[in-house]
Amino acid sequence: MADLARETLQALDRLPGRAAADPVAADPAEAACAQLLRERLAAQLAVHDAGDHVRALRNTASPIHYVRSIFTLMPTTSEEDWAVVAGRLRAVPGAVAGYRRTLEQGVGRGLLSAPRQVESVLAQLDAWTGRADGGAGWFAGFVADGPERLRSELDSAALGATAAVGELRDWLHGDYLPAAAGVPDAVGRERYLRSARLATGSNVDVAEAYDWAWEEFHRTLAEMRVEAGRVLPGAGVVEAMEFLNEHGHAIKGEEAVRDWLQQVMDEAIERLDGTHFDIVGPLRQVESRIAPAGSAAAPFYSGPSLDFTRPGRTYLPTLGRDTFPTWQLVSTWYHEGVPGHHLQLARWTAVADQLSRYQVTLGKVSANVEGWALYAERLMDDLGFLTDPAHRLGYLTKQMLRIIRVITDIGMHLRLAIPADSGFHPGETWTPELADRFLAEYQGSPAARRASEVNRYLGWPGQAIGYKLGERAWLRGREAARHRLGADFDLKTWHMKAISQGSYGLDDLEANLAGL
Predict the structure, then answer these.
(1) What phi and psi values does residue 47 have, to the nearest 5 degrees?
(2) Quick one: which of 65, 99, 225, 367 has the fewest CB in 10 Å?
(3) Mean pLDDT of 435-463
(4) How confident is the model at residue 440, as a pLDDT?
(5) Which value, to the nearest 10 degrees, does the dihedral of the CA atoms of residues 224, 225, 226, 232 take?
């Protein structure tokens, strides 16, 4: 893949690129794809050349997670579909072995993930293999609905996949974890900036971002205090959160909460279509699902297939719960579903013939996508969808989560001091323990979610800052377009242009949005 990236960059460099007659310069769509290719491939090569891929082990979005997620995307409606599933299950042991060989290279080169990441993945693999609950494991459960004619083949393939994952788990525990002893959680400035470039498409000014996030922290905290008083007169923020968790509206049962979240998205489609977006055809199809056991704690979205035979899907991790307070879920599903991830990524797929397959698949920039989804939450607040005090406090706590991500992600990896006027452990240097306490005091996440969040920041440096920095770019781009067009600015027109232009890194996104 690295060789292909270098060859592609060399081919791009051979293009004239500036002459009006040149096909890339003459076609804005070609120019946009070339711009994205140059930025993405250069950022990916920097990560590869530093050897970061040989220590790709964390609690989310590492190669072993992608191996399993493939199956959640596959069609399973016909016997032919299940035959393909069986074939792909038989390929799991080889894929897992290849991943292990990559990690072994990292051990040999002294490039390892920290013990915290290893331990979090061990717990996940225990859930996948059934060791955590004494069951048959996730793969066996996945094939249980397959056709009887393929029962023996499916069960055998699932057993082989489970065994391969179990062997990886044992090697991680017995060999990798001892070798990782002493590897620090923080990655340092050089690796952090390299990883942040990959996640944001920008050479992030981390000092500016850290200071700006503290400003956002104090501003949002003031709003949260007001909203907490509306939820429970006289209550502080954490007290209001605890009240909503214990006495607020809640859904009992996985099927019931899945159906309720589906209703949230369906209602958003009906109310936004024709007013602030044109939500037509396959964009109207999005499914609510429960995340498979052993997932990270955060909800997530998977986009539709290029032909829309698989719709976009949102996933809620249950973490063993059976009762689900809804006060935080409304804005979260505006983020994951409509008008957030689903509307943007399904729209990209719908206009793929005007863009390119690269732009709508491999070329995604995380901060662009997450920035849009956070912008979507704010848009729904601005449009009056979150006037209920509980729902609005839920929205503000999610904003605060993304602000805390900027502060703690940069703070932990660069070992920064907490500002003297912060009101939280002033002058101390950020540690994982302080990050956990910060989340508990100002965002109210339960312990399991906090642990998953902190592990994620430490294992995926630079990704978590893209939500708020991306939202800032989207908001600035919109206001620049509004200023440029004056009375001719139309929000629905701008929205549809904005979600039809494909992905850009943050170095380019704001200017492109301003010109729409």
Answers:
(1) -70, -45
(2) 225
(3) 95
(4) 95
(5) 100
Q: Are 461 and 409 in contact (CB under 8 A)?
A: yes
- For the record, the structure tokens of 322 come out as 């059976």
Residue 143, pLDDT > 70, answer yes
Question: From the CA atom positions of the chain, what is the Rg in Å?
Answer: 23
* Cα dihedral 74, 79, 84, 88 sign: positive
Distance (Å, whole) CA 372 – CA 388: 23
Asked whether the beta carbons of 504 and 201 are under 8 A apart, the reply is: yes
Q: Which two tokens mark 58?
A: 């964390």
C-beta separation of 466 from 367 below 8 A: yes
Terminal Cα-to-Cα distance of the chain (whole angstroms) = 34
CA 455 to chain centre: 14
Q: Which residues contact 113 (CB under 8 A, 6 or more apart)?
A: 55, 56, 57, 58, 106, 180, 183, 459
Tokens of 304: 């539709």
Q: Which of 369, 365, 337, 352 is nearest to 305 (CA)?
A: 352
Q: What is the pLDDT of residue 20?
A: 47
Integer Cα distance of 152 and 155 in angstroms: 5
- Confidence band, pLDDT 50/70/90 cuts, at residue 26: low
Tokens of 64: 């072993």
Q: Which of 3, 2, 7, 34 is nearest to 508 (CA)?
A: 34
pLDDT of 28 > 60? The answer is yes
CA–CA separation, 430 and 77 (whole Å): 50
Place of tokens 């996640």: 199
Helix (H) or strand (E) holding 162, with range, is helix 151-171
* Residue of 209, 119, 170, 206 whose CA lies nearest to 459: 119
Q: Measuring CA to CA, how many Å separate 435 from each of 87, 222, 325, 455?
A: 44, 20, 24, 10
CA–CA distances in Å: residue 331 to residues 30, 306, 338, 346? 36, 27, 10, 19
Greatest alpha-carbon pair distance for the chain in Å reads 68
516 is written with which tokens?
A: 């729409």
- Beta bridge partner(s), residue 316: 290
Q: For 67-98, give the DSSP string.
A: HHHHHHHS--SSHHHHHHHHHHHHTHHHHHHH
Q: CB of 267 within 8 A of CB of 276?
A: no
Strand blocks (E) in 317-382? 323-325
Bridge partner list, 314: 288, 301
| Cα within 13 Å of Cα(21), Cβ side | 0
Please give the sequence-ordered ranges of beta strands (E in DSSP) within 293-339, or none if there are none. 300-302, 312-316, 323-325
Grouping H, G, I as helix, E, B as strand and the rest as coil, residue 145 is: coil
Q: What share of the chain is helix, strand, coil (3-state, %, to 5)?
A: 65, 5, 30
22 pLDDT tier (thresholds 50, 70, 90): low
pTM of the entire predicted model: 0.95
Where is pLDDT greater, at 406 or 353?
406
Q: Do 204 and 192 meet the contact criterion of CB atoms below 8 Å apart?
A: no
